[in-house]
Amino acid sequence: MKNFKKWAVFILALAGMFIFVKPAFANQFNFSVKAILPDNQASKASYFDLLMNPNQTQTLTVELSNSTDKSVTVEQGLASATTNLNGVVEYSPNSIKPDSSLKYNMKDYVKLDEEIVLEPKSTKTVKVTVKMPSSAFKGYMAGGLTYKEKQSSKKNNRHKRNQYPK
Prior knowledge:
Layout: H1 2-19, E1 32-36, E2 57-66, E3 72-80, E4 82-83, E5 89-90, E6 110-111, E7 115-118, E8 122-131, E9 143-149, E10 163-165
Antiparallel strand pairs: 1-2, 2-8, 3-7, 3-9, 4-5, 6-8, 9-10
C-alpha cells in the first residue's frame, strides 16, 4: 500500500507538469538581421569589424528577413559606442551627450535609411554607407546599428523586446 501511494503521488506530479505548462516560443521577433561581412573584415566576428583607410567610402550590406504573414516596418538606428556606469561598452542609441573629447562621431560618417518595410515572408538587403574621416587616426571608431520593429501608436510598450542591436 505504501508503494502504491508513492507511485500515485509521482504519477500525479508528473501529469501536473504537463497539464499546467504554458507553451514557450523561442522567437519573439518578427524579423531577423544578418550582417553580410565584406573582404576587409578585420576579425572573424559576426558583426562589422572593418579595416578602412582615410577618406575611404564603403557600402555595407545588412540582410533583414521577415518570416511572418504580415508586413513589418523596421526602424534602423545608429549610435557611437558609450560606456555605462559599470564601465561596460554599449552600442545602442541613447540620450548621452557626446563628450568634448569625441573627435569622430559615428553619425557624421555613416548614412542609412531610417525605415525599411519588409513584406510578408520576404528578405531585403539594406545598404549602409560608411565614409572614413579624411585624416588617419590611432584607435577605433566604434558604434552600433540597431534594428527594431516600428510600433503603431495603438500598441503598448512591447517594442523593447523587438529590437536587435547590431
